[in-house]
Amino acid sequence: MSESRSRLPHWQKEGASYFVTWRLHGSLPSKVTADLLTTEDAKFLEQDRLLDAAATGPRWLLQPAVAASVAKILLDSEVEGKCELASWVLMPNHVHALLRPRLDLPKVVSWIKACSARDANRILSRAGSPFWARDYFDRWLRGGIDEAKIATYIQQNPVNAGLCPIPEAWRWSSSWAARD
User: Which end of the chain offers a freer environment for a tag, N or C, measured as fewer CB atoms within 10 Å?
Assistant: First the structure.
């Protein structure tokens, strides 16, 4: 098991699955993020509720061209052998993914965020501005029951946020892709 540091510790276990969440830069006030970005479930859920409410900050992932680009890069992470991708969803200002990295988790997340930020900023005609917040939340999943619980959480996120009536109706998710 190893630990990688930015501002948050990111514990890694070889062969493990992870629940990973990252958000748009500016989607939460900085004084809120310092307290909420922890691995504690209650604080994570509070942060996720704030993101779902989207009372402040950018909501670029609602733009179809931006969402399509981010979704393609997320799916490409599996095609390119960086991870096995299970459930995922693009919300208006954040992303949830259940994945099993084939490389170090920070390298996988960094690749996804860097490639998608470059494309999204090009689409939005933004140069020199951060697209994603620097840090991300990750949680090591300890087995099938944990993975099933998180997959359901991810699939239900757009429903719980009032964006659609059923998971399969949200275009930017693994539930949409699985409906065919």
Answer: C
Domain 2-178, CATH homologous superfamily name and number: Transposase IS200-like (3.30.70.1290)
Backbone angles phi, psi at 166, to 5 degrees: -140, 155
- Return the structure tokens found at 37: 């970005």
pTM comes to 0.84
Distance CA 52, CA 92 (A): 8
* pLDDT tens by residue, 9-63: 556 677 889 999 999 998 876 555 545 555 556 666 666 676 666 666 899 999 9
Q: CB neighbours of 27 closer than 8 A, spacing ≥ 6?
A: 51, 54, 56, 57, 58, 93, 94, 133
* Phi, psi angle pair for 71, to nearest 5°: -60, -40
Residues 137 and 20 sit within 8 Å (Cβ to Cβ): yes
59 burial (CB, 10 Å; 0-12 / 13-18 / 19+) is middle
Domains of the chain, residue spans? 2-178
Element (H, E) at 30: helix 30-36
